[in-house]
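Weekend entry, working from home. Most of the wet-lab plans are on hold until the incubator is repaired, so I used the time to fold the two sequences that have been sitting in the queue since the last round of cloning. Logging both here for the record. First:
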Amino acid sequence: MGLTEMNERQGTHSDEAEMRGEKMHSLPEPRIVRPFVGIALALLLLPACSPDETPIQPPSTLTISGKVIDLMSQMTPGGMPPIAGATVKVVSQDPDSTCRCECLDDGSELAAVSDQNGNWVLKDVPLTYDPETNQAYSLLMKVAASGYQTTYDVYNPSLGDKYDLSVVSKLLYFFLALGEVLSGADPDTLCVMFGAVIGFTDMTSPPTSETIAGATAYAVGGTPPEPLEIVYLAESGLPDPALTATSGAGAFYLVVTDAGAVPKVTFSGTKPGVTLVGGEYPACPASVVPAGLIDPFYTP
């Protein structure tokens, strides 16, 4: 996604933020992984070159590996064990395309199963490129595990070959979506989108980051774009409707009641003195989609 397009999509909240003296910034394709850190790495590792330099061509294939974990493990003291027996697939090589969530879902050669330690490997994943930017398209990855709701996670090849995937239990998924279901929403069209606000405090290797409290998140989707309701999570990891900004957990979620009518959601956010990077994510039916807001150069 280009900077111009992202800026146009975020224009409304950017104008509001400028009136309040807050800083906004837009960069291409943020992504989210355990613990919501990959979104910033994807942004900061995108190759850059001057107009006089020849763009670096990414490889034609990539072998990717990582772990499958419970999303709530980062909010659980001592964490939670990784998830064995999860199926990881590449289902799309361009999440911005019209087919979105199931483009390549019959490609068994692009599938792997996590071992007893939650580790998975996808070998020789083919990459395609944006002819204008010469950058590899992002991959939309599908994760399915027993007892967990199907998850779709957007992966940017600029991250490198290590990428952890988070999933949400079916119990938590239906708990979060219960209000919409009781109001008549079709469970087969729902999409729960989890997000977090993260700041990088040190970009040396390995980089360090922390969640950002007191940030306000925004989300819009549909045609024409309309605001979507954000619910923030308390530090316990439970929803707290009384919160109007992130707690120390830095986490939030929203429920898209009809992913067919709202196929994509654009996130942005504000906090005085903080530069937050947002982005656009696909809303896939009957699933969980991680999202995020990042300050790549955060000063606590």
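Second, folded right after the first finished:
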Amino acid sequence: MWPSTRTVPEVGCTSPMIMPMVVVLPAPLPPSSAVTLLRATLKELKRQGKTLVYTTHYMEEAERLCDRIIIIDHGKVIANDTLAAVRRLVPSVNVIEIGVENPGRDGWLSGLRVLEGVSAAEWDGSTLRVTVRDLLESSPRVLVWLRERDYACTYLTSQRADLETVFLTLTGRSVRNA
């Protein structure tokens, strides 16, 4: 006879739960409130020693979330280390960002890219990003090059290499052009 508070017996069932050693995540992570829960879950899995594999073209997110960075170029691993160590693969890389009001026509960056000390030059429609090894030595060259060609510059900033810049320097092309 079952107690009067229950009409059916409790049925218990157990089965082994598989706890993966590796979790593969999609990119990018969803931009919603679910992300907070997902990040908390990932943090707990990481605390438990699980390996989280996150494949992405979103370099800012990889910088923020990953302990180790692996850069693969045409199927070949060209970097596999911590973010700090991957940054050191491209020593002293700096990015000069210049607002240019009157950009040139097709191919206008090719002359800039061959300047001594310039590793790369990219144009996004409003900002010129020039990657240089030595900020003090190369910045004047870049600015003189622009002035001699009558480009109107509205601002100038510099920053240390982010993961996107490291990728560009190591592979020779932007993630979008890969």
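Plan for Monday: verify the second prediction. Residues 22-88 form one domain.
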